[in-house]
Amino acid sequence: MPSVHGPRRARIAFSDSAAKQLENITSEAEIHALDRALVVISVDPDVGEPIPGDTAGPQLRQYTDEVEAVRVLYFVTALRTVVVVAYIEV
């Protein structure tokens, strides 16, 4: 019997600096924009573009949503958890 649910979404976690940024968001529009971007990333963690850099750690990626004017920097762990390093409004 086929599954009724779609593919499993990635879990989203925040670094300390990203959590600090979240505390400062008060605008409903900014919250909505960030939520939309996080949903996209949780459905497809590879959607963002790789950021060139050091290969010692996990590959840092950036996702930019031009419609909502949001950029999110993140990396994906081996267990497919998305760790948001920074939320940056474009």
Q: Which properties best describe this structure?
A:
alpha+beta; 90 residues; five-stranded mixed beta sheet; 5 strands
Quick gist of this model?
The chain is built from two helices and five strands, in the order βααββββ.
Can you give a write-up of this model?
The chain has 90 residues and is of the alpha+beta class. It has helices spanning 16-23, 28-43; strands spanning 12-14, 49-50, 60-65, 70-76, 82-89. A hairpin with a 5-residue loop joins β4 (70-76) and β5. The chain is globular and about 35 Å long. The mean pLDDT is 86.
Mean pLDDT: 86
The low-confidence runs, each spanning 5 or more residues with pLDDT under 50, are none
The helix/strand class is: alpha+beta
Order of helices and strands: EHHEEEE
**Main sheet: strand order:** 1-5-4-3-2
Let me know the number of strands: 5
Distance between the termini: 45 Å
Q: What is the 3D form?
A: globular
Radius of gyration of CA atoms, rounded to a whole number: 14 Å
Helix content: 25-40%
* Beta fraction: 25-35%
Helical element count?
A: 2
How would you sum up the major sheet? 5 strands, mixed
What oligomeric state best describes the polypeptide chains here?
single chain
